[in-house]
Design brief:
Strand order of the largest sheet: 17-14-16-15-19-20-18-21
Number of helices: 17
Shape: globular
Strand content: 25-35%
Helix content: 25-40%
Radius of gyration: 23 Å
Structural class: alpha+beta
C-alpha cells in the first residue's frame, strides 16, 4: 500500500527516484485512491455600489489595532479599498478551498503605486498578495493584509508586428480581441482566456500550442517588475537576467509583474479541426510522437472521456465504473481557400474513429471552451471547490500511470470538470523555474474535478496521493492547481535548483512579504 512507503523517502532533500518496491506499492494504491474520490462526488450528485478612492477603517494587525489604511492611501494614487464588498470579493479564489479576507484591497494606478505598497508593507511587517483573475486554487492570490488587484493595470501600451506591450493585469481575452483586426495573436493561449498575463506568466502558462511553442512564459520578451523590496526593474534575457528568470514561472514569490512585452505571430483567418476518437492509450501516445515530430498540425488537444458501464462489485459494495476513451482534436490554421484533406493529414494514424471535421473563424477556436465554461456556470459546478491535480509526466511512465489511475476511476468523479492530456516536447520550454521531467517528450496530465465543499476532505487526500504518485514516477507538479507541499516536498520539486530559489527569494523579497503561505522556504 502507498502508506508503506518508507518514512525517510519524503524527507530526502535531493531527488525522488523511482524504485521498484515503491512503484509497485503506488500502483496498488491508485485504484483505491481514485475510488474514494468518485464516491464523494457521487454522493453530491444524489443528494458594490460605486467605490470611492479611499475607505479608511481600523484593522486588526498582528494583535494590535492601527489605522494604517489611511496612511497607505496617502502613498497611492490608485484606489485603496477597505469596504466589506471589496474585501469579500478578494477573500477566496477559484479553488474555493482557502479563505483569507484581506484588510485592504489596492487597485494600483501604476508601477509606482505597487512600489509604494510593497515598501509600506515591508516597513510595517505586512504581507501582500497579487491577484489577477483569481484562478489560483491553493490560496496563492489570497492574503490577510493587502491584496493587489492587478486588473487595474490592464491596458495595452504598444503593438507592432512582432510584439505587444501591456499591463501585467490585462486578461488574455482583451489581447486576443484587440489584436484580431490585425490577424496577430500570442503563440500560446490558455484554455481560459479570462485569466491575466501576470498570473499565467507566474505559473508558466500552458495551452494547446505548448507542444511546439513552450509556455507563455517562454514567449515573454521583457518585463517591468517591482521586487519585494519595492524596486522597479526592467528585465529580459539581456538585462537583469536573474530577475527575469525568477519571476517567470516563479509563482509571484520574487516580484510583481506590472508590464510585459510578449511575442506575437501572424495567424491565418480560419481553422480546420479533425475530431478523432481513440480507444487505446498506447496508440494515442504513438500517434502523438509522430504528430509532434512531423508537425502536421498547429494545435493538439486531448483528454480522457469516460463511457459509463454501470455498477460493479468492489469491496463488498457496488460502484460505478467506465470504459475510457481518448478524444483528440488536431487543428490546423487555414486561409479558408486551400483546405487540408483528412486523407493527407490523418494518414497512418491509429485512431478508433474519425468522428467529425469542423471549420470556423480562428477567433472561434481561441474561445472554443467558452460554451463549456458557460455550462459549468449554469449547472453550478463553477461555484464548487476545484482541487485540480495537474502534473507533467515523463513519457516512458505516462501509460503505466494514467492507465492505473483510470482503471477504477468512477465516471461521476469528473462531473463539472474533465481530465486533460497535454503532449509536449521536452525541449519546448527553457524557463528555468518551470520544472518538468527530462526527455524528448513529456505528457501533461490533469484531473480537474468540481466537488461540493462539504464533501471535499477525502477527495483532497486522494488527490494528494495522486500527486505523490506522479512525483514518485519522476513527474513534476504544474503549480497552478491544488498543492499541499511541505518544505521537503518543495525542495524535491525544485531539486538541484532549490538553493538558488532560496537565494533569489532572499535577494528580491528580503522581508518575505510576497504571496505568503504557498512556497515554504523555512
Amino acid at each position: 500500500m502507498l502508506t508503506q512507503i518508507p518514512q525517510n523517502f519524503t524527507q530526502n532533500d535531493a531527488k525522488l527516484n523511482i524504485r521498484k518496491e515503491i512503484r509497485s506499492g503506488l500502483l496498488t494504491a491508485l485504484p483505491t485512491m481514485v475510488e474514494g474520490l468518485g464516491r464523494h462526488v457521487l454522493g453530491c450528485l444524489r443528494g458594490g455600489d460605486g467605490l470611492h478612492k479611499v475607505w479608511a477603517a481600523n484593522q486588526e494587525v498582528h494583535g494590535g489595532t492601527m489605522n494604517w489604511s489611511e496612511e497607505l492611501a496617502k502613498l497611492v494614487s490608485g484606489q485603496v479599498l477597505t469596504d466589506e464588498s471589496a474585501r469579500e470579493a478578494a477573500a477566496t479564489d477559484f479553488g474555493r478551498l482557502v479563505v483569507r479576507k484581506p484588510a485592504v484591497v489596492v487597485r494600483p494606478a501604476s508601477a509606482q503605486d505597487v512600489s509604494h505598497v510593497l515598501q509600506f508593507a515591508s516597513r510595517n511587517s505586512l504581507k501582500v498578495s497579487t491577484r489577477g483573475g483569481g484562478h489560483s486554487q491553493s490560496g496563492q492570490s489570497l492574503c490577510d493584509d493587502i491584496v493587489l488587484d492587478m486588473t487595474a493595470l490592464g491596458e495595452v501600451r504598444h503593438v507592432d508586428e512582432s510584439s505587444i506591450t501591456c499591463g501585467g493585469g490585462i486578461k488574455w481575452r482583451a489581447i486576443v480581441e484587440q489584436l484580431a483586426p490585425q490577424r496577430l495573436s500570442p503563440p500560446v493561449l490558455t484554455n481560459n482566456l479570462d485569466v491575466t498575463v501576470g498570473g499565467t506568466l507566474s505559473t508558466g502558462g500552458l495551452g494547446v500550442a505548448s507542444w511546439r511553442h513552450g509556455t507563455q512564459a517562454d514567449n515573454c520578451l521583457e518585463l517591468e517588475v517591482v521586487t519585494g523590496a519595492g524596486e522597479i526593474v526592467r528585465c529580459s534575457a539581456d538585462q537583469n537576467r536573474a530577475l527575469y528568470d525568477s519571476v517567470r514561472a516563479g509563482m509571484g514569490q520574487f516580484g510583481v509583474m506590472t508590464e510585459a512585452k510578449l511575442r506575437l505571430r501572424r495567424h491565418k483567418p480560419r481553422f480546420r479541426s479533425f475530431y478523432l476518437l481513440y480507444d487505446d492509450l498506447d496508440k494515442l501516445l504513438k500517434d502523438f510522437e509522430s504528430l509532434m515530430t512531423e508537425e502536421r498540425f498547429d494545435y493538439l488537444e486531448s483528454w480522457c472521456a469516460p463511457c459509463p458501464q454501470g455498477f460493479r462489485k468492489v469491496a463488498g459494495g457496488r460502484t460505478p465504473f467506465a470504459q475510457w476513451f481518448f478524444p483528440l482534436h488536431a487543428t490546423l490554421e487555414t486561409d479558408g481557400v486551400t483546405l487540408p484533406e483528412a486523407s493527407e493529414k490523418l494518414r497512418g494514424l491509429q485512431f478508433y474513429r474519425h468522428v467529425h471535421t469542423e471549420d470556423g473563424e480562428i477567433g472561434e477556436f481561441f474561445a472554443r471552451l467558452d460554451p463549456l465554461f458557460a455550462l459549468w456556470k449554469r449547472g453550478g459546478a463553477w461555484d464548487f471547490t476545484h482541487p485540480w491535480m495537474e502534473c507533467v509526466l515523463p513519457w516512458q511512465t505516462t501509460p503505466m500511470y494514467i492507465q492505473r489511475v483510470l482503471a477504477n476511476f468512477p465516471p461521476q468523479a469528473v462531473a463539472g470538470g474533465h481530465i486533460l492530456l497535454w503532449p509536449g516536447r521536452g525541449s519546448a520550454s527553457s524557463v528555468p523555474l518551470f520544472m518538468k521531467p527530462q526527455g524528448e517528450f513529456v505528457m501533461g496530465f490533469g484531473i480537474l474535478p468540481a466537488i461540493p465543499k462539504q464533501l471535499v476532505d477525502e477527495p483532497l487526500a486522494n488527490l494528494n496521493m495522486a500527486s505523490l504518485g506522479a512525483i514518485m514516477m519522476s513527474g513534476k507538479r504544474y503549480l497552478s492547481g491544488w498543492i499541499k507541499f511541505d518544505q521537503n516536498q518543495w525542495k524535491a520539486h525544485y531539486g538541484d535548483a532549490w538553493p538558488k530559489v532560496v537565494e533569489l527569494k532572499k535577494k528580491f523579497d528580503p522581508q518575505g512579504i510576497l504571496n505568503p503561505g504557498f512556497v515554504h522556504f523555512e
